[in-house]
Write a structure and sequence with these properties.
single chain, 1 helix
Length: 63
């Protein structure tokens, strides 16, 4: 019985580490996305007032 308890403990420890790593990576990806969308290159588009981002990418035709 003790070995099963040990295995469960090790598994939960592993899951806790994996979850923490996943959350850290997710946070870094979100921060990178915010930095990229706030960089100057995205502000070069002419957007109508009240719109944050253009609906279509530059070079695309809107029908």
């Amino acid at each position: 019985m003790g070995s099963a308890l040990k295995a469960i403990k090790a598994m939960s420890n592993f899951l806790r580490k994996a979850l923490r790593n996943f959350l850290i990576i997710t946070a870094l990806v979100i921060i990178a996305a915010i930095i990229l969308t706030r960089s100057k290159s995205t502000r070069d588009y002419v957007t109508p007032p009240g719109m944050r981002f253009p609906d279509n990418l530059p070079g695309e035709r809107s029908e």
